[in-house]
Design brief:
Helices cover 21% and strands 28% of the residues. With 433 residues, it is α/β, with parallel strands linked by helices. The chain folds into two domains: 272 residues, Spore Coat Polysaccharide Biosynthesis Protein SpsA, Chain A (Alpha-Beta Complex), CATH 3.90.550.10; 124 residues, Hexapeptide repeat proteins (UDP N-Acetylglucosamine Acyltransferase, domain 1). It is globular.
Length: 433
């Protein structure tokens, strides 16, 4: 018997330049950002699809996509006897489309020649930089039950967060009757609604009087392509396609009740990672046997922890930690912490490869800083990107309490008070930040 998901394909949008996440996105696409020390952000929507029996998956990429493409190709390989796939569709120029992607909707429009031949009934449009666990089968069932042309997954939000979202109003049947992308001032206040219509009690509705789009959509196939063909200058789903569609089509809202985080800023990315170590029950957990999050299989040894004090910290595979103290931190794969290292509230992304003892000794003899964190180094409230070389007795603690700062020479920045040591950066012995 055919399943509901057999005629659905997912389209995961690889994101734009990700300027709000710079410098973490200077050399990688947003969905390729490391998460929880061993995953990538793209693993979240792809895993949600696999767990929801959605096995036709397209990933649209454009900016800094090399590491993202490499991760996907090395991770998601379906059985040759199944019809499942994860295809990467990179932006490319052609005679018909000489320009790059101009927005989320334009990315789908320009990718249609590769997507269309599969002849599915519905397209699930997803973002590649959200943290959540969602069964898309429930979303699809609601889409079918309401005979919707478009269904938008929504969450209730308060007035503080509302200006950062596309907001909507719905009628008593859940049909969207108004939509505004990131309104402010009077336009924002005009989008207040009684969210008890979504099932919230009066107390919850008073705290969250706005209905926000999660940027997750279900489109009937013909509806999607008709809108894209009819409005060739409508390049974005939130700004263009959805506001136009609600005037004439059945656009429904689907309430998502789980944890969801839009990781679009440095504080959002940093806090989402550190929330994972909160005990006993973080809002999002990777410890879910029924709905696992998949990632690239790596054949790494167990971590070796010698005489160390590790508290409220995630330690990933293949690490060597000697006489260190780690508090409320995430320690990524292959990390090396030498004696006397202290990490507090730190996201350490780890290393892409090991450095042998011989290579480390050669670096030290030549006066170079080996990979990892050197003896006696103290790091607080920081993100240490991949393959950093941090010497002995370094202090990374934003000693001047700066909110924003950039040091291109030494390859570190401060964003919203969080110190970020860039990918492949070298901080010599005794450096103080």
């Amino acid at each position: 018997m055919r399943k509901l998901t057999d005629r659905v394909a997912a389209i995961i949008l690889g994101g734009g330049r990700g300027t709000r996440l710079s410098p973490l996105t200077d050399y990688r696409a947003k969905p390729a950002l490391p998460l929880a020390g061993k995953y990538r952000l793209i693993d979240i929507p792809v895993s949600n699809c696999i767990n929801s029996d959605v096995h036709k998956i397209f990933v649209l990429t454009q900016f800094n996509s090399a590491s993202l493409n490499q991760h996907i190709s090395a991770t998601y390989r379906f059985s040759p006897f199944s019809k499942g796939f994860v295809y990467v569709l990179a932006a490319s120029q052609s005679l018909a489309n000489p320009e790059w992607f101009q927005g989320t909707a334009d990315a789908v429009r320009k990718s249609r020649p590769a997507i269309d031949p599969w002849k599915v009934d519905d397209y699930l449009i997803l973002s590649g930089d959200h943290l959540y666990r969602m069964d898309y089968r429930l979303f699809l069932q609601h889409h079918k039950d309401t005979n919707a042309d478009i269904t938008i997954s929504v969450i209730p939000v308060n007035e503080h967060f509302a200006p950062g979202f596309g907001l909507m109003k719905i009628d008593g049947r859940g049909k969207v009757i108004d939509f505004k992308e990131k309104p402010s001032g009077d336009a924002l206040h005009g989008m207040r609604v009684d969210t008890t219509a979504l099932g919230l009690n009066s107390y919850e509705a008073n705290l969250a009087p706005y209905i926000a789009s999660m940027g997750i959509y279900l489109f009937k196939r013909d509806v999607l392509f008709n809108l894209l063909d009819r409005e060739p200058f409508f390049n974005d789903f939130g700004k263009d396609i959805i506001p136009a569609a609600i005037k004439e089509l059945n656009v429904q809202a689907y309430l998502f009740k789980g944890y969801w985080e839009d990781i679009g800023t440095i504080p959002g990315f940093y806090n989402a990672n550190l929330k994972l170590v909160k005990q006993p029950n973080p809002e999002f957990s990777f410890f879910d046997v029924e709905f696992p999050i998949y990632t690239r299989p790596r054949f790494l040894p167990p971590s070796k922890i010698l005489k160390s004090d590790i508290t409220d910290t995630m330690v990933c595979d293949g690490c060597i930690i000697k006489s260190a103290r780690c508090l409320n931190s995430v320690i990524g794969i292959r990390s090396r912490l030498d004696e006397g290292t202290v990490l507090e509230n730190t996201l350490l992304m780890g290393l892409d490869f090991y450095q042998s003892n011989e290579e480390r000794e050669e670096d030290l003899r030549a006066g170079r800083t080996p990979m990892g964190i050197g003896e006696g180094t103290f790091i607080r409230n920081a993100i240490i990107d991949k393959n950093a070389r941090i010497g002995k007795n370094v202090k990374i603690m934003n000693k001047d309490n700066l909110d924003e700062f950039t040091d291109e020479k030494n390859r570190y920045v401060i964003r919203s008070g969080i110190t970020i040591v860039m990918k492949d950066a070298v901080l010599p012995d005794g450096t103080e930040i």
